[in-house]
Design brief:
The complex is a heterodimer of chains A (118) and B (113). Chain A has 118 residues and is mainly β. Chain A has no helices and twelve strands. In chain A, strands 2, 5, 6, 10, 11 and 12 form a six-stranded mixed sheet that branches. Chain A has a four-stranded antiparallel sheet with strand order 3-9-8-7, with no helix packed on it. By secondary structure, chain B is mainly β. In chain B, the strands form two sheets. In chain B, strands 2, 4, 5, 6, 9, 10 and 11 form a seven-stranded mixed sheet that branches. Chain B has a four-stranded antiparallel sheet with strand order 1-3-8-7, with no helix packed on it. The chains are: A mainly beta (118), B mainly beta (113). At the A-B interface, strand 5, strand 6, strand 10 and strand 11 of A face strand 4, strand 5, strand 9 and strand 10 of B.
Chain lengths: 118, 113
């Protein structure tokens, strides 16, 4: 079974509008972390936002927020007021379990290509 | 702002040759990772490193691959005898703790011809 599922291969959004990128995950471990990364066409991986499984509040970082619904195992990324520079591939990733002293891998989804239209 | 640095940014090598990809993680980070991304595909985990030893490795990380931390700052990935299918973007990443984000380098694009 896929640990991270991103069902939207491509999304379009009008500049200045909000957009939600979907991510669902599968784990039986109670301790995990969820991450979103942005990969522009230049190829680098840029960290956007993190949500821990025990965090009570949804994470926010500037225009990025994470809609964390633990019971549904979803961690959708919301980008508000989209800008042309937001056009990129977006990856959801999970690390589990979170055990200090163990360099656990990030497992990535297949990504969503977001295009912001002027 | 501290960042993960990878060299070279692009390497072209002949099939069967050895390559060494270099990374300088963020200085106070304790956990180190190598990932690769074949063009147009998802990011795949290769190996993780903590306390001067391999913590985890994937099925991709076979005997052709090795990692070293030769000094206090560098973290290298060696591919002993490259194959065409090793062509990919290779990312190094580091994190301070398991519960914090992993910061990625800008990647090394390896092309095997």
């Amino acid at each position: 079974a896929q640990k991270i599922t991103q069902t939207q291969p491509g999304m379009f959004v009008q500049e200045k509008e909000a957009v939600t990128l979907d991510c669902t995950y599968d784990t039986s471990d109670p301790s995990y972390g969820l991450f979103w990364y942005k990969q522009p066409s230049s190829g680098e991986m840029i960290f956007l936002i993190y949500q821990g499984s025990y965090d009570q509040q949804n994470a926010t970082e500037g225009r990025y927020s994470l809609n964390f619904q633990k019971a549904r195992k979803s961690a959708n990324l919301v980008i508000s007021a989209s800008q042309l520079g937001d056009s990129a591939m977006y990856f959801c990733a999970m690390r589990e379990p979170l055990v200090s002293g163990s360099a656990r891998q990030l497992t990535f989804g297949s990504g969503t290509q977001l295009t912001v239209l002027p | 702002e501290p960042e993960v640095t990878q060299t070279p940014s692009h390497q072209v090598t002949q099939m069967g040759q050895e390559v060494i990809l270099r990374c300088v993680p963020i200085s106070n980070h304790l956990y180190f990772y190598w990932y690769r991304q074949i063009l147009g595909q998802k990011v795949e985990f290769l190996v993780s490193f903590y306390n001067n030893e391999i913590s985890e490795k994937s099925e991709i990380f076979d005997d052709q691959f090795s990692v070293e931390r030769p000094d206090g700052s560098n973290f290298t990935l060696k591919i002993r005898s490259t194959k065409l299918e090793d062509s990919a973007m290779y990312f190094c990443a580091s994190s301070e703790e398991v519960s914090t984000e992993a910061f990625f380098g800008q990647g090394t694009r390896l092309t095997v011809v």
